[in-house]
Amino acid sequence: MALADISRVEIEKAIEECDRLGRDAFLAAYGFRRARRYVLVHGGGQYDSKAIVGAAHGFLPGERPLTPDTPGFSGGAKHAARLLGRLGFDVVEEPTHDAPTHDGPTHDELIHRVTHLKVHRSAGRPALYKPIVLLWAMGRALRGEARLLPWSDTEEAVKDLLARHGRRGERLRPDYPIASLHHEGVWELRDFTGPVTTAHGDAGVKRWFAENQPRGGLVQPLHELFRDSAVTRLAVLDDLLDTFFEDLDPAPLLADVGLDDGESDGDGDPAEPRPAPARAPEQWLLTAAEYERGSRLVEEKEARNRGRRRARTTLGPVRSRAARYLVLGRSQGRCENPDCAGQPADVTDRHHPILEVDHVIGLAEGGRDHPSQMVALCPNCHAVKTRGRTREALRDVLLRVARERHEAGGGRSAEAPEASG
């Protein structure tokens, strides 16, 4: 048993697995029972501390998960709880009653609800009520704003967005999408009595919100995911835009809700940067669990969009912002060409590394929009790969690097290639 070797990376992998399987299935898989005293509180949910540490041990190289009866291993203050506290996690002695346990929907189930919305259609095209509300809420989460708002504030903000960006006959009725999202388990409503109105009808729906004035917002686990996990936020953003805005320009809406990143989402030079809050360099470092989750979301989108083209002035392939973010995070701010002759020490106005994400095999040539075939290159190496006489040999090297770094998990434990010279 090597508890001292467990880091946040292994703990987060165990948490990710619990989210994916659900609490009861996770406990059954590892042979644990629910925690009786010490509970890990993380990301808006509760986890059984001993089971999480036991599973995390199995993510150490060459080690196996710990079982409940492993000699010398307990969930108490001297073992699992102490380790979690030392690693910076919050551990409470009693399960808190205001944080959801994982008897409810897992993170993956919540994301599935957002990316598989049921919406009304007009002339064969999906209405924009729900996507606009969700993009607004995602922008608020990204900025760290309050999760729950009074109904009057929600109504005013969503009405304004519907008036400015509704393109398919949407009425100025925030009550419709909010009621529907609540019944789908995506939106929380508080401070009222009796059942929540359905999203059907007209005067009755509007009257219920006017009379009850509920506070509301995204359910807590989803709000925290959008706030804390850039790759999850970008993957969901990709999905919403591809599903609902295929024949529209979403840029003005993204600017209004604060979700435009001001930079290129594919090959080529970045767009002109705009003023924005600084992003600390360490925020680009991804944990292995984040990289794994992001890759899975990218792969799901890739499978749904295979062969699709964007209906714009020119037909271009659908590209993934999340895949681009994964590659930038994996690079840790350094060019991924192992023979790079230099490194720019500067960053952009948005504190992003001066790197360009490149598809080693172009999408038009059958390449994948996936981190396993994408690399982050400094401008000079990008130019060599695109126009240099040695570009064919370099492409073979970069394909190997992309595959190896993707298979290594892309997290903090992955070594960045050293620059020579």
Automatic annotation (TrEMBL):
The keyword Glycoprotein does not apply. Residues 258-270 have a biased composition (Acidic residues). It holds the Pfam family ScoMcrA_N. Residues 255-281 are annotated as: Disordered. Residues 322-383 form the HNH nuclease domain. InterPro entries: DNA-SBD_ScoMcrA (IPR058813), HNH (IPR002711), HNH_nuc (IPR003615), ScoMcrA_N (IPR058807). Keywords: Endonuclease, Hydrolase, Nuclease. GO terms for molecular function: endonuclease activity. This is HNH endonuclease signature motif containing protein.
